[in-house]
Design goal:
The chain is mainly beta. The protein is built from 4 helices and 14 strands.
């Protein structure tokens, strides 16, 4: 009889968990299918490419020993991008991350040729969508849904003397994703092609 109570107790305890899933509507915050190639050209004649490598989706506990157990869903868009320090590409880097720990959050992490977006920005969905829309024209295309994301000035101070420049501003179209970024050396990179 004690064995039955013990087994019922284990079943009850292990079934007492909840999941924070990312709603399908929130997944649209990342407007990529996952295999695109993004080609950027700069106002100084340079080019750089971001190769999207698909999504990694998983759940993990918020606090491992909490009761009831709560799982957070993660959706990470991986990419192959330029190493900001060397003339090479790095594989499987997080480009855009969505998580839901009760609230959906988005993080955009950009490295580019000799540039790095400093100040790891994480926004709640609400804060992200409440950034002021801006209109930008790139090579004849007008984007009317652009969010301007600026770097954290304190993060820039920590990198003084390093050989790369920081990306100071990213321009994110709600329907097209990253369309432009500017570095601290007045080099502006614009999306010229998506393959």
């Amino acid at each position: 009889m004690n064995l039955k109570k013990y087994l019922v107790g284990i079943v009850l305890i292990t079934s007492c968990k909840s999941n924070y899933n990312i709603p399908n509507k929130d997944k649209q915050l990342i407007p990529y299918k996952g295999a695109e190639i993004l080609i950027f050209k700069s106002n100084k004649g340079n080019s750089d490419t971001i190769f999207l490598q698909g999504y990694n989706e998983f759940s993990s506990p918020i606090k491992q020993w909490s009761f009831p157990l709560k799982n957070v869903e993660h959706r990470i868009l991986l990419s192959r991008r330029t190493d900001p320090n060397y003339d090479r590409y790095l594989d499987s880097l997080d480009f855009v991350t969505l998580i839901n720990d009760g609230t959906t959050k988005i993080t955009i992490n950009l490295t580019a040729k000799h540039s790095w977006f400093l100040g790891y920005h994480t926004f709640t969905k609400s804060a992200f969508l409440h950034l002021k829309d801006t209109i930008i024209r790139i090579d004849g295309t007008i984007y009317r849904d652009v969010l301007v994301i600026r770097t954290d000035p304190d993060a820039q101070k920590d990198r003084v003397g390093q050989k790369f420049h920081s990306v100071v501003t990213m321009y994110w179209s709600k329907t097209k994703g990253l369309i432009r970024f500017d570095d601290a050396n007045s080099e502006n990179w614009e999306l010229v092609k998506v393959l």
